[in-house]
Design a protein that fits this description.
449 residues; 2 domains; nine-stranded mixed sheet; 19 strands; binds iron/sulfur cluster
């Protein structure tokens, strides 16, 4: 270690929704050297910090002062009649609150990257409720762990180690040997290779398989045709044979504490919200027999915070329109992809532009044609050629903040590296203050504490 290096322990990582808070890092000037607790997803993300130092602000690709960029961004927004603020999942509570405040000032639509991710799950939870738990509770108690349509071995590399498979828990002194792990998916995955049982579900038959499990729990007979091989594929129409599902239903009933983690393999198939409603209903049924919970595997580090902050500020977690001076909720109507596809947006503020890669070609095409203002971290390559580009401090590295782990537990983020970059909260606040006062503008709906 050089004389200028400082070592930090118990640093939180916001690369994925696990928000592991046990990292050990060494900081050498602006550079970060991961020492321990950093998985293969996080290591390159941390190693890029300080590697390049993009300008804090740029207009049309040319570096400029922050004041010039803020003035230009405010001018774009002042001329806009239908602005959209989108992203927020790589931010922190302060940045998300500032984004809602700006949306309220503009009468804009505000949406999070969840609208292209777990939005169907959010809608399902709104319909049927959720039997929930913290990851700590799961670590200490869950002796049956099911992954449905998810591959955390790839998407959340330390999930097994910290929460779901390997740790010794208060009521699981044997760690992995005290847990039974089941994977349900359309094909074997890296996660199923670590599981005790893999159950094949035919593509787009998750709903029917979950309904068959609900019937088996009630000791009813599921429809016989679901367990025929009418397509001569060598598998049943559902994917798995009846005795395999019967065995799973019995394991679910018999366990002391069960959890099903589900991912986009369930939520983003056709009628994904119905799949998740069915799964949440199955979990509710199981609570007549034992303690059972369901948890989403959230991908970006603070997408759960984005939902939470937008919800506590507007009453709705995503797809919120503030044009009338009060919040209106409209998945499919006020979600970013659909607004852009229908050309119903004439300027866009991207609070983290990574999600642009998930837009449909038609939405991405319209985004290229309208003025855009992007706020990105210095270690993440912008995905759009924005009219105004800001580089902002990384929460948890350059600035303190709060990230919500995938189980909605808020994790404090610390500053470990000095920077001149402003936070996204500061940039969004400056843009709001630079806006001309419009006496005919919409009344502000959100009273922020
Ligand atoms: S599992 Fe996720 S939060 Fe944990 S170190 Fe890896 S990327 Fe970071």
């Amino acid at each position: 270690m050089t004389s200028h290096a400082t070592e930090f322990r118990d640093v939180a990582c916001t690369v994925c929704g696990c928000v592991c808070d046990d990292l050990r890092l060494r900081v050498e000037g602006r550079r970060v050297v991961p020492l321990s607790g950093v998985c293969e997803l996080a290591a390159p993300w941390f190693e890029r910090i300080g590697h390049t130092q993009p300008a804090a602000a740029a207009i049309a690709g040319g570096a400029c002062s922050l004041d010039e960029a803020v003035t230009r961004a405010a001018a774009i927004l002042a001329q806009s009649r239908a602005p959209l603020i989108w992203g927020l999942s790589r931010s922190s509570s302060d940045g998300q609150r500032a984004a809602v405040r700006l949306a309220d000032r503009l009468g804009a639509c505000i949406d999070t990257s969840a609208s292209l991710c777990h939005a169907p799950s959010i809608m399902a939870i709104q319909q049927v409720g959720e039997s929930t738990s913290s990851l700590g509770e799961i670590k200490n108690r869950a002796d049956l762990v099911i992954f449905w349509g998810a591959d955390p071995a790839v998407s959340h590399p330390r999930h097994f180690e910290r929460y779901s498979l390997e740790p010794v828990g208060e009521f699981l002194p044997g760690g992995r040997s005290d847990r039974t792990v089941v994977v349900v998916d359309v094909e074997p995955t890296a996660t199923s290779a670590a599981a005790d049982h893999f159950i094949h579900v035919a593509p787009d038959r998750d709903f029917e398989m979950i309904w068959a499990l609900r019937q088996l729990l009630r000791e009813d007979d599921p429809p016989a045709h679901e367990f025929a091989d009418t397509n001569n594929t060598g598998a049943t129409n559902l994917g798995a044979p009846l005795d395999v599902l019967w065995d799973l239903a019995q394991r679910m009933k018999r366990c002391h504490y069960g959890v099903v983690f589900f991912g986009l393999g369930l939520a983003r198939r056709s009628l994904g919200h119905r799949n998740v409603e069915a799964l949440l209903s199955l979990v509710a049924d199981l609570n007549a027999h034992t303690r059972f919970t369901a948890r989403r595997l959230r991908i970006p580090g603070d997408v759960t915070g984005a939902d939470s902050v937008v919800c506590w500020q507007t009453g709705f977690p995503f797809a919120v329109n503030l044009a009338r001076g009060y919040p209106r909720y409209g998945p499919g109507e006020y979600t970013a992809n659909e607004l852009l596809e229908r050309h119903e947006v004439d300027a866009c503020v991207l609070v983290g532009s990574e999600a642009v890669a998930n837009l449909s070609p038609a939405a991405a095409d319209w985004l290229r044609q309208i003025p855009t203002i992007a706020l990105d971290y210095p270690n993440v390559a912008p995905t759009v050629e924005a009219d105004v580009q800001f580089t902002t401090a990384i929460y948890g590295v350059h600035a303190p903040g709060t990230a919500y782990r995938m189980d909605e537990v808020p994790i404090p983020l610390r500053q470990v590296v000095d920077t001149e970059y402003p936070t996204d909260a500061e940039v969004l606040g400056a843009m709001q203050r630079a806006m001309p006062i419009d006496p005919c503008g919409p009344p502000n709906a959100i009273q922020q504490a």
